[in-house]
Automatic annotation (TrEMBL), chain A:
Protein's job: Required for corrinoid utilization. Probably part of the ABC transporter complex BtuCDF involved in cobalamin (vitamin B12) import. Probably involved in the translocation of the substrate across the membrane.
Species whose genome carries this gene: Halolamina salifodinae
Family listed: Belongs to the binding-protein-dependent transport system permease family. FecCD subfamily.
GO molecular function, one term: transmembrane transporter activity
Protein name: Cobalamin import system permease protein BtuC
Pfam family, one: FecCD
Keyword list, A-Z: Cell membrane, Membrane, Transmembrane, Transmembrane helix, Transport
TrEMBL record, chain B:
Organismal lineage: Archaea, Methanobacteriati, Methanobacteriota, Stenosarchaea group, Halobacteria
Mode of membrane association: Peripheral membrane protein
Name of this protein: Cobalamin import ATP-binding protein BtuD
Catalyzed chemical reaction(s): an R-cob(III)alamin(out) + ATP + H2O = an R-cob(III)alamin(in) + ADP + phosphate + H(+)
GO BP of this protein: monoatomic ion transport
Length: 370, 305
């Protein structure tokens, strides 16, 4: 009898697991489909148009995909192989890296958004909530206005600026430990001051071109994304994702509130700081190559949570797929909607993200609590 | 974070039989010194001063509390008498400004955080419910102190979760979303999670407050089962004096941050004590269902009872 009961329990457990996994599978399959569709559209349209079939063939060309020379070029920064045709160069050197950077940035923003929402226990938190965006933005403006010669290091400066602002937020929030509310408020304090200084710096820009690039950077764009950007962002992304998935158990416990987490033997302050650190690393990798793209880190964890629930492992896995799908498809719109004028992708995510929040506001009564 | 060394520390469920043997040794007025020996899960606080940062006067001022091992101890007292504060001080959730808490002969600061969580569990009044999580998954998080950084739950974890769910009587809810449960059912889930922690000492802060009578009785039934099974020391804050009278082996009455009376329920729950501690006039009657306290009137300073 006991055995039968055990078997039943095992079956039931497998059943619920399967249900949760199937919902995750839905996100994964859907995201991959959107990603593939966007890739083909992005590759085929533009100043040098290809048919959809040609686009597909060029992207999934086994001769290129499995060629070590191509790998050396794309990931190690060797010269472009000379035997590539013009069409292949356009696809592989101009259009594909942009998609890849988009996917990397989308994954980073979505996963770090999920991390920040968990540590602040606030559904309205974004990767930029703890001052990261404002620190990065200020440094970018400073570089563009005063240290123009250092432009090549802009991505690294931005990431460092973001990390410093995050530390400042933490220092301000600290008073016998932190709390989610104190962290968010400290983020607002730092954001307000840095934002004002940022806007003031705009008045010191004489050159319209510099002002435009500053503006594009602040709204987030993939316009200049190439293999160089892939090489900058990829290692940090892989590291951040590995760390994020290593702490899913900790995230689950942290979600129970500080008291409960503490009773379960978690050093809450240390853990929260460590997880915020992972989030900042991930956000910085995204900011470094694409600037400040809004809303992705806010809405993607939200959408995934609505489908798979708040189990961290499933949530992060869902974000890892849906983030790239959303960002890459938004970038298709940014590049092709008003062609030949390209919009920053952050403009599109904002235009799409706003109404999604309006919809949530109408639908849910207690939006915000996690 | 990873605590391979800690995992070999004290495992709960050592030897319940040993502990129950020693429970008779501890009388109502134990001195706070630990009785040396591995058999009992000794738990006591001595000369505790517990307060909150920013408050000038401590809430608990120089109190010693010895909790009889392997028994149920109820803390009673009016609002603001420091029951919850004392509990948090005992659990090291607020570091006492002075005094020591001894657990199994060691001061509580000596324990690593996960090690402490394997020995002592505290369920607070307020708990955050994450959305879209099933009961069984939530209870499983109680196993956190037993799992290392890279471990995933193993057979023993799943067995502990199952047992906790059975004990809390929520097997029929195990696959439900915690979101969708009533307040009383949620409380049972939280208790199941604390049980899955498999600690020697379990502290419950007002586990029955805000619950309907049915769920209050469900909660107290769990406490009764724990008492009957033995092997665990339970300390709980209760607002309902009748529950304390019925379920506790030992009652501590607090007033203004100090212990006013302690001892067997029969010694503490008397008309005189309750008049002083709660400022109420009561009738204590023996019924076929045990001692019953019938509150009559509030006492005011101008006309003492």
């Amino acid at each position: 009898m006991g055995r039968v009961l055990d078997r039943l329990a095992a079956l039931r457990a497998a059943g619920t697991d399967w249900y949760a996994t199937s919902k995750l599978a839905l996100i994964v399959v859907g995201s991959v489909a959107v990603l593939l569709g966007s890739t083909i559209l992005q590759v085929s349209f533009g100043a040098y148009p290809l048919t959809l079939g040609e686009a597909w063939q060029t992207v999934f060309d086994a001769e290129i995909l499995f060629n070590p020379e191509i790998w050396r070029w794309t990931f190690l920064g060797a010269d472009v192989p000379e035997w590539l045709t013009r069409q292949q160069v356009i696809v592989w050197n101009l259009r594909l890296p942009r998609i890849l950077v988009g996917a990397i940035v989308g994954a980073n923003l979505a996963v770090s958004g999920a991390l920040f929402q968990i540590i602040t226990r606030n559904e309205l938190a974004s990767p930029y909530i703890l001052g990261v965006s404002d620190g990065a933005g200020l440094v970018v403006l400073l570089t563009l206005t005063t240290f123009y010669g250092l432009m090549p290091f802009l991505p690294i400066f931005a990431a460092v600026g973001g990390a410093l602002a995050f530390l400042l937020v933490y220092a301000i929030a600290w008073k016998n430990g932190t709390s989610p509310v104190r962290l968010v408020l400290a983020g607002v304090v730092v954001g307000t001051v840095f934002g004002s200084v940022q806007r003031a710096l705009f008045f010191f820009i004489d050159d319209l071109g510099v002002a435009m690039s500053a503006q594009a950077w602040l709204s987030g764009t993939l316009m200049n994304a190439g293999w160089e950007e892939v090489r900058i962002a990829l290692p940090f992304t892989v590291l951040a994702m590995a760390l994020a998935f290593a702490v899913t158990q900790e995230l689950d416990v942290l979600l129970l509130g500080e008291d409960r987490a503490d009773s379960l033997g978690m050093p809450v302050e240390k853990m929260r700081f460590a997880i915020a650190g992972i989030g900042v690393l991930s956000t910085a990798a995204a900011i470094a190559v694409a600037g400040l793209i809004g809303f992705v880190g806010l809405i993607v964890p939200h959408m995934v949570r609505n489908i798979v629930g708040s189990e961290s492992k499933l949530l992060l896995a869902g974000c890892l797929f849906l983030g790239p799908a959303l960002l890459v498809s938004a970038d298709v719109g940014a590049r092709l909607a008003l062609s030949p004028v390209q919009l920053p992708v952050g403009v599109i995510t904002g235009i799409v993200g706003g109404p999604y929040f309006l919809y949530l506001m109408r639908k849910k009564t207690n939006l915000g609590e996690l | 974070m990873s605590d391979g060394s800690l995992r070999n520390g004290r495992e709960p469920d050592d030897d319940a039989a040993d502990r129950s043997a020693s429970s008779t040794v501890t009388s109502t007025e134990t001195n706070p010194e630990p009785t040396a020996g591995p058999e009992a899960s000794d738990f006591s606080g001595s000369d505790l001063v517990v307060g909150y940062p920013g408050l000038e006067t401590p809430v608990i001022d120089c109190e010693s509390v010895a909790v009889p091992p392997d028994a149920v101890t109820a803390l009673i007292g009016p609002n603001g008498s420091g029951k919850s504060t004392l509990l948090k001080g005992l659990a090291n959730k607020i570091s006492p400004d002075d005094g020591t808490v001894l657990l199994d002969g060691r001061t509580i600061e000596e324990f690593g955080s996960k090690e402490l969580a394997r020995t002592l569990g505290l369920l607070s009044q307020e708990n955050a419910v994450p959305s879209g999580v099933s009961v069984v998954d939530l209870v499983e998080r109680g196993r956190y102190p037993h799992t290392g950084f890279f471990d995933s739950p193993d057979e023993s974890d799943l067995a502990a979760v199952d047992e906790a769910i059975q004990l809390a009587g929520i097997d029929h809810l195990r696959d439900r979303d915690v979101d969708s449960l009533s307040g009383g059912q949620k409380q049972l889930v939280w208790i199941a999670m604390a049980l899955a922690q498999e600690t020697d000492v379990l502290l419950l802060d007002e586990p029955t407050t805000f619950l309907d009578p049915h769920h209050q009785l469900e909660v107290m039934e769990i406490v009764e089962t724990l008492r009957d099974r033995g092997g665990i020391t339970v300390v709980l804050v209760l607002h309902d004096i009748n529950q304390a009278a019925r379920y506790a082996d030992h009652v501590v009455a607090l007033k203004d941050g100090s212990v006013y009376a302690r001892g067997d329920p029969g010694e503490v729950i008397t008309r005189e004590t309750l008049a002083t501690v709660f400022e109420i006039d009561v009738d204590v009657v023996e019924t076929q269902h045990g001692t019953q306290v019938i509150p009559l009137d509030p006492l005011h300073d101008d006309h003492p009872a």
